[in-house]
């Protein structure tokens, strides 16, 4: 009889066992590889998001205060008839602290190429709030039609006063009609009726008269007033309050957004734009030079020179030399839960810190709202930004005749 050929039962069982072991090895390799992939991609994305957030704010902080022509004008109350641009302080940056939430950074700067040089009235020039134009202005050639100008009637002796804000409706180059000065006096800035900025009658809120020797005109061009805020959607599951960014809505949950204060409409959701995602907290502090011992920022700002308290005096604003801030960034991809379905990428007792202290506990701030915050890893990005325009205006004022 001819012997049969093929696999026996034992051989088949051995092959099955070997296949199962190979499958387990492949699955384990894949699972490990997937874990590394998630961590690598998540960390890379977090690094990118943190870097973008830090650099975007830094770029604007370096410009902040440009256009303020004197340190003694700091903190004057800017007033105009534009509801969005009245009753705000003439300062480079402000930090708004929200209890249990993220801080907000608001800054202001000029867009005019000559914004750092204040203009003065020429000899023999006086102006009252009955005038509809300024004539005989030294350095008036730096102004253009449409520029926003802050008038600082320097009261001297560390005093403060309101600073009217108006818009130039024409300059000597394009003003026509009655009141246009002769060629010999062509330094003219007209500020006649304008629906947003200038009054139709008296030039309110200008004072009754502007002092000739001390009044300065600060050219702010289009004037940027920008706020950075972290948007977190309301989440009953995490017991999180509605977002803290005024009127912002329908943004990516856990993102850094910014707003330029609109000039011709009320603030609404469309006023905000997204800067970068996966940012769940922002913290910031002022750096004050209280001893004025040099130009090096680390030496100027002592350990007790960092504060969240916004200055309320002229001297306090003059001592401001730097801002330090940090963002808490969430990785883009969640880590795989363990066999019991629990996430431990970040522990319950994790305390995420920066130079100014600790961030709020992650459970109250991490996103997205519908997943466990412990499935994600977090990283901290921080920096110190010297306010270079503060340094410039704190130099000796060589053109002012007002008492210090």
Descriptive report:
The protein has 404 residues and is an alpha+beta fold. It has four helices and 23 strands. The protein is elongated, with a radius of gyration of 30 Å.
Give a topology summary:
Layout: H1 9-63, E1 77-79, E2 88-89, E3 93-96, E4 104-109, E5 119-121, E6 127-128, E7 133-135, E8 137-138, E9 148-153, E10 162-167, E11 170-171, E12 188-190, E13 209-210, E14 215-219, E15 224-231, E16 255-260, E17 272-277, E18 279-288, H2 297-300, E19 306-307, H3 314-318, E20 320-330, E21 353-354, E22 357-358, E23 378-386, H4 388-393
Parallel strand pairs: 1-10
Antiparallel strand pairs: 1-2, 3-4, 4-15, 5-8, 5-14, 6-13, 7-12, 9-10, 9-14, 11-12, 15-16, 16-17, 18-19, 18-20, 20-23, 21-22
What multimeric state do the chains show? Answer: single chain
Overall shape: it is: elongated
Mean pLDDT, all residues? 79
* SSE arrangement, N to C: HEEEEEEEEEEEEEEEEEEHEHEEEEH
Structural class: alpha+beta
Count the beta strands. Answer: 23
Biggest sheet strand order reads 2-1-10-9-14-5-8
Quick one: biggest sheet? 7 strands, mixed
Strand content: 25-35%
How many helix segments?
A: 4
- Catalogue the unreliable spans: 397-404
In percent, how helical is the residue content? 10-25%
- What's the end-to-end separation, in Å? 122 Å
Any idea what the radius of gyration is?
30 Å
């Amino acid at each position: 009889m001819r012997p049969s050929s093929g696999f026996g039962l034992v051989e088949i069982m051995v092959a099955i066992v070997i296949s199962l072991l190979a499958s387990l090895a492949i699955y384990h390799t894949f699972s490990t590889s997937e874990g590394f992939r998630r961590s690598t991609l998540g960390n890379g994305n977090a690094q990118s998001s943190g870097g973008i957030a830090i650099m975007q704010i830094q770029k604007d902080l370096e410009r902040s205060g440009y256009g303020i022509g004197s340190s003694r004008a700091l903190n004057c109350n800017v007033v105009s008839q534009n509801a969005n641009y009245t009753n705000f302080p003439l300062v480079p940056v402000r930090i708004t602290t929200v209890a249990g939430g993220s801080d907000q950074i608001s800054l202001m700067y000029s867009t005019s190429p000559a914004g750092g040089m204040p203009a003065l009235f020429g000899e023999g020039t006086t102006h009252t709030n009955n005038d509809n134009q300024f004539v005989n202005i030294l350095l008036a050639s730096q102004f253009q039609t449409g520029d926003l100008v802050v008038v600082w009637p320097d009261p001297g002796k560390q005093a403060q006063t309101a600073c009217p804000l108006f818009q130039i409706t024409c300059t000597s180059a394009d003003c026509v009609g009655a009141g246009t000065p002769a060629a010999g006096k062509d330094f003219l800035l007209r500020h006649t009726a304008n629906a947003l900025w200038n009054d139709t009658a008296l030039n309110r809120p200008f004072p009754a008269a502007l002092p000739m020797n001390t009044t300065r005109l600060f050219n702010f061009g289009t004037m940027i007033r920008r706020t950075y805020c972290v948007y977190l959607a309301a989440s009953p599951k995490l017991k999180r309050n509605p977002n803290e960014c005024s009127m912002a809505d329908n943004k990516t949950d856990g993102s850094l957004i910014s707003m330029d204060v609109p000039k011709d409409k009320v603030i609404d959701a469309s006023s905000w734009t997204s800067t970068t995602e996966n940012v769940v907290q922002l913290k910031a502090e002022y750096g004050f030079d209280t001893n004025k011992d040099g130009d090096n920022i680390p030496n100027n700002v002592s350990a007790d020179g960092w504060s969240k308290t916004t200055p309320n005096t002229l001297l306090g604003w003059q001592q401001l030399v730097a801002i330090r801030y940090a963002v808490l960034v969430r990785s883009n991809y969640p880590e795989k839960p363990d066999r019991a379905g629990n996430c431990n990428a970040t522990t319950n007792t994790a305390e995420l810190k920066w130079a100014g202290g600790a961030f709020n506990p992650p459970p109250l701030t991490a996103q997205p709202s519908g997943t466990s915050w412990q499935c994600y890893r977090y990283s901290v990005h921080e920096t110190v930004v010297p306010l270079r325009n503060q340094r410039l205006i704190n130099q000796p004022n060589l053109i002012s005749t007002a008492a210090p």
